[in-house]
Amino acid sequence: MNPIKKAQSKYRYSIILLKQLVITDFKLRYKGSALGYVWSLLRPLALFAILYVVFVYFLKIGSTIPHYAVYLLLGVVMWSYFVEVTTNGLSAIVGKGDLMRKLAFPRYVVVLAGSLSALINLGINLVVVAIFMVINGVPFEWRTLLIIPFIVELFVFALGIAFLLSALYVRFRDINYIWEVVLQAGFYATPILYPIDLVLKVTPWIAQLMILNPVAQIIQDARYFVVTPNALTLGSLYSQHQYFYVIPLLITLIFIVLGAMYFRKRSPSFAEEI
Amino acid sequence: MDNKVAIAVNNVSKSFQLPHEKMDSVKSLFINPFNRNHRRFESQHALKNINFKINKGEFFGIVGRNGSGKSTLLKIIAGIYATTSGSIEKNGKLVPFIELGVGFNPELTGRENVYLNGALLGFTKKEVDANYESIVEFAELERFMDQKLKNYSSGMQVRLAFAVATKAEAEILLVDEVLAVGDADFQRKCFDYFRELKKNKTTVVFVTHDMSAVKEFCDRAVLIEESKLVAEGRPDRVADKYSRMFMDEEPVKAIEDGPQRWGSREISIVTVEVSPKKITNKALPLDLLLTIKAKDDIKNPMVGFSIKDATGQIIVATNTKLQHINTGLVKKGDILNVKFSLPNYFSDGKYTLDIAIEAEDASRVYDWWEEARKFTVYEDSPVPFLTSPDIKITTKLDHA
Prior knowledge:
Chain B: Residues 7-251 form the ABC transporter domain. Chain A has 274 residues and is an all-alpha fold. Chain A contains 13 helices and no strands.
């Protein structure tokens, strides 16, 4: 058997399962609600409306940044994706306990399925972002496509955390409360609602520290390529030391490796520990 | 591994780590991170050094009491649990039916659930498409496929789940007491499916309590008792050994009150004896001896008993009133002795005895004691019927 065929037959079951879990998750998401899938679009729209009124209309933050509304929305959408993947991941194993106890299937599939359905959601939300880009007159260029590698980076980072959390949650049920707090803190420690320029003006070293967080680095880079070159990136905060890019990448790498290793080590005993 | 072997269980042991406190919390780690004693686990041995091989094409039974470890063994073979030591070797595609309808979601329609359940059993969408019509037909649910599963009756759900399960093209099937659910019609379908599997020489590993099914279908069986393999071989022998296990009776403690005993106790049961101790001889009657003590004057109390078999079915019951026996006026402090003598028509197995004392007009329960005694009947050649009276048979052959 050639190696491709071999891999196909080895992962056949995982692929079938992954597809079906993602489809089911999508079908179940808005079951019973009158508007159904429309909510996928309405939710980010409503959130955007609130943020716009509060930050652009009243607080007048970010008036120095062109297209601040789209800038804001893109950040919020990417942060929500991160939150969704990690919280989905957290409860992925425990929530599917019934399945774990009755079937032997590769356990990583449920975590991966959760992050893929979040990715579908991100795709829908990015459509909303694109609509606002048109309304706001943000030009579509080739560089807009450069958001893709950063989405990949975010996917990998969030997945790494999801693996770690899902396996930890089987043993330590406090994790979900802890993670809730971490996310709250993370939301304010990441320049999502406010431009990082504000922090830079007050205490530059804090801004430099903040941008080392992979989510902050990713959001700023995405804004840079999609919305406006005025968005401050890690590159512009460390203009003399571009190699600092290694740090968020390394953090991402550490999480995915550590998360996958820990998950792999714990997964044989999931069925009996849940 | 030998090519004829489908599953080899090599010296498998399994112990579960049961934490003393219900849930490990992060708190305990913070409070004393260096003290390893905070993780006090109790090891529970579920399986000890199990060895056996299942050949290809064999219908193989795993039998044992509740809690013996047989389901754990099945889950280890299925790959759901990891072994603590030892290994499992498998030769061929394995599909487990630990439960029917795994992953069924009440919010999805019947159709969607077929695809979901199918995926869990390893079908691609195409494969489910190809089998869909026959699944629906087999489940007899043509009109209901677009309704949500939560609107199905439990019988309909089981039928649907079973219909999907029968499509599984496995080389090795693991079946865990799926037969316990469903009505007689459904059980017949199950058995038909088993016969088909047997005809097609599919390797089947079957975990059950049902000894008649073991005798009918299995080519070979093992008996698991207290985490160990205690018998292996011909299914009839293993089934007999299983039945015998229920005969080691444990003494019943006299309980004063509780869910098994209640009543106002103006007069109450003091002792209950079943004689003889070892019930083997069909010719000897079975005697139930009761001593009853009164705390008040009671006129003609009604004393009765019932005997249930292992499944809870009442085999025989009567009381003094039904038999027109007058127990007389029992005065305060008196001891009333009652003896019920009945022919030994019990078949091989375990029985429980309930005793009751009520007022003459049944208006009041003085003492009602369920499972006051347990006893066992031994037979040399057990029959799987409710009773087994000593039957005299005479034949007369008239030659033409």
